[in-house]
Specification:
Glutaredoxin; binds FE2/S2 (inorganic) cluster; about 300 residues; Arc Repressor Mutant, subunit A
């Protein structure tokens, strides 16, 4: 679990100000929220400030709080809650967030972390020698099915091996991060199986491609029909597909109409206030309700815990 604290006072800047362009953007963004809800812009503003300076300082938090008329503590709570906000200076070319939650840990996150320790710094939140890289461990980034993974900026790099991650790290250090494709690094498409389709492959009828959709060039098109057994679905083999046998009507039409009228009357009725009066939650004394067809009061008793002795 990450410890989220503001950076040491010795490196905190005395002040923060948005650039002219970012200030105009922030003004527009704040105006997008309904009157009285301007504080909802706190996350976008903090993120824009971070994009501008690379991290969120105490001065940034106070400036954003002033802009949104919020107590400083409220903005501090937001900035320290989300690991997307960096609370100290980070590498100028990449800050690597290694997912260390269970699925990634089981799939080798410790080896990925070891690469960071070797190439950047043994401890998180420290810059490498030339100030280009930094790293930290974070909780699940939501790409567990492609574990282990890291987040760099707004992108994720998944299905990592230590060797492949080392290549990625060096590319970022050398300013070539944009040459690395994002997403899975083992050749699979998103989280599709590496060795081809494994479900919905037993089709009996040819599937006509839709005239309005075309598969992307890099996606292998499955054959319209696959060699394999073709099954004829028999009633005996698949009773669930049988139509129900026609049945004799057991109620008269008049009875059906009467039931419909009864139901529609019930749905239009206001909530039963009698049940709500004096309700206090678990201890609610709601022991009476008008619920019978005839309208007379029906008594029900509150359920009491049954002791083991009583049970016996
Ligand atoms: S556990 Fe690593 S992305 Fe979810």
């Amino acid at each position: 679990m990450s410890v989220r604290r503001l950076a040491d006072e010795s490196i905190q800047p005395a002040s923060f100000a948005f650039t002219k362009e970012n200030a105009a953007w922030a003004k527009k963004r704040i105006a997008m929220y309904p009157e009285g809800r301007q504080q909802s812009a706190v996350i976008p503003l903090l993120m824009r400030a971070q994009e501008q300076d690379g991290w969120v300082s105490r001065a940034t938090i106070e400036t954003v709080a002033d802009m949104l008329d919020m107590p400083y503590i409220r903005v501090l709570e937001v900035a320290t809650f989300y690991t997307q906000f960096q609370l100290q200076p980070v590498g100028s070319r990449a800050h690597i967030q290694v997912c260390g939650t269970t699925p990634c840990m089981l799939r080798g996150a410790e080896d990925i972390r070891a690469v960071c320790q070797k190439h950047i710094h043994p401890d998180p939140h420290h810059l490498n020698e030339d100030g280009t890289l930094s790293w930290e461990e974070v909780e699940c980034a939501g790409a567990c099915v492609n574990a282990p993974m890291v987040t760099i900026g707004f992108d994720t790099y998944e299905d990592l091996t230590p060797n492949r991650f080392e290549e990625i790290l060096i590319a970022f250090r050398d300013g070539k991060g944009d040459t690395i494709p994002t997403g899975p690094q083992n050749g699979r498409r998103f989280s599709a199986p590496l060795d081809g389709q494994t479900t919905l492959i037993d089709v009996s009828e040819p599937v006509e491609p839709s005239p309005t959709t075309t598969a992307p060039a890099d996606v292998p098109t499955p054959p319209a029909t696959r060699p394999g057994r073709k099954r004829k679905i028999e009633d005996e083999a698949a009773p669930a597909v049988r139509s129900p046998a026609p049945q004799e009507a057991e109620v008269s039409e008049a009875e059906v109409e009467a039931e419909k009228a009864r139901i529609s009357g019930r749905t239009r009725r206001r909530p039963d206030q009698a049940m709500r009066e004096g309700a206090t939650g678990a201890e609610s004394p709601a022991i009476e309700k008008t619920g019978s067809k005839t309208g007379e009061k029906v008594k029900t008793t509150s359920r009491k815990p049954v002791s083991p002795e009583t049970k016996e």
